[in-house]
Specification:
672 residues; alpha+beta; five-stranded mixed sheet; 20 helices; globular; binds zinc ion
Length: 672
Amino acid sequence: MADAGTESNLLLLDFGFLDPIEAKDVRPEMHALLKKLKSFPCPLWSSSFSFCLQSPHKATSLSLSNTCPSASAPPIAPQALPVADAHVESNPLLQNFEFPPFNVVEAKHVHPGILALLKKLESNLEELERIVDQLDVVWGMITHLKAVKDTVELRAAIEEVQAEEVKFELRLEQSKPIYNAFKALQESPDWNVPRVAKKRIVENQTEGAVLNEVALEDDKREEFDKNEQELEKLSSKFAENVLDATKEFEKLITDKKDMEGLPATALGLAAQTAVSKGHENATSEDGPWVITLDGPSRNSIMQHARNKALREEIYRAYVTQASSGDLDNTLIIDQTLDGILDKQLLGYLKSTLEHVGLLPTNREELRQYFSLPNVMEGLFNLVRTHFEIEIEAADGLAPVWNKAVRFYRVRDSLGNPIAFFYFDPYSQPSEKHGGAWMKEAVGQSRVLFQDGASARLPIVTIVCNQTPPMGNKPSLMTLKEVEMGFHEFGHALQHMLTRNDEGELVLDAVELPSQFMENWCYHRETLMGIAKHYETGESLPEDVYRKLLAARTFRAGTSTLSEIRLASVDLQLHTKYVPGGLESVYDVDRRVCEKIGMIPPLPEDRFLCAFDHIFADQYAAGFYGYKWAEMLSADAFSAFEDAGLNDSKALKETGQRFRETILALGGGKDPL
Ligand SMILES: [Zn+2]
């Protein structure tokens, strides 16, 4: 029964940080939350103003408009709006009416009436923000746990309520009264007055409503909704198959010869994995070792193993994962593209940029200079200098989902807390999705403040998949892992330093601050500050630093080509590809590779079956954003170079400028 456990359900309590949730909490909780949200007093259309009445849509059992008296309710007694203006109380524009009172409206009513109405609508927007936020935060919490601590039970529990959640979101996004209210705000004479961020939100909401087919007739909308439900399911299934395929593959190695060439860290990791798979006596020196398709394990073989056959085996396993048997994503790709084709009826191609890491790996021998505690300290020093923020450990303040997860508080230069973040660093192949990403757990909001604070503070999660500590050694990182950490922290900065307190951020150039932060990994002072040998404390030798700089562009052409391949395949699949037609998705990939002059993929290459950026992570038709934002981030970093990378005063000033613009404005302003 859906209501079982509602009262004690953790997800329904007020909370500051992510609480320990179990799969059993999901179903009753989401039912209860959706029920609660459905019965939320109708914020925007409870008074019968004309533009709220334009097209009362067909009431269904789930329609938000059910809670509104708008279309069917009897006239309500006149009720003045709470605005301190003498004209307002008697203003006929502001009363509830059944039929427009054309006989009493005069010119003098227009100005005060419309201003008061807009003020009322603005506060109603805040109510709307509350509704949307509650669902965003709670649903975000559950899906976050699925990404970092996947279990069969949690999967099933989410699957069971997903359809209802999508249905509710669609109802909200497709609500004509809300759409009309936003339109009215945009068309009002005061439209140029509101703060820029609010304008962007309204513009994006209106556009979003069009994207979500508010303009379609009711019969077509049903079809659209069914399609959205299907797409949501396909996206979850795609990601689950990739994770399961990664989990399914393991290669046990007992012959020491096969491991030749592997550095100590990689041997240690492989032995540690073997222990976790039941080979209790596995040791770094004598094995046995287990190789998996998880990033740190796979990459160590591809880079260092002398055994060519082993490298080939791992490569083939990697490029064919999730492409056969029960976990085959081929059909899911076609079904997804087919569903997206249906969405293009309105002439839009929706592209919401989000992020998962996209970085190749780097030189193993440098690891000993990059221990995680040093890297974090260097990163925190950098942002202290440039952005005048202080980061302090706050472990224990908030519950975490895994004991390796750290929690931090961010303070401004006056010592006031301004944000919090979780950092979940290590690879956990059995339950955690691969890659690296940043997600907002709780957004900054002026409306949703807590405990009398001026705004609710943002809380973000930063998730990486780097090599875990081994024995008494700290986690030793490759330079690429360091860059990835800086990259994700760049995303986090934009969410944590935003001054946009109007709720939802709209991030067009989302990869700008992240790629910008990567540049600092090559900045002499920053890098030398971080790179200390984990045992001896010795600094990175100068000649090694020079080599690193030189190596930065090593094979840069190849990686550019590979990004262009992915971006082009993505765009082709979302624009020209005909699902079920003559060409398969793999043919498209092959054609793109040939066109841009890349070595064609192996005939059995099924890399697309694990391309979760575009099939499970909302980068659909938006993968090119990485390249676009890379250019913007290079421009931003040039501003620091122009100021003088060795001039700390100039750097500080430029840092402030970057903070006040790119970081503080968030998506509140169109990046162009
Ligand atoms: Zn990113």
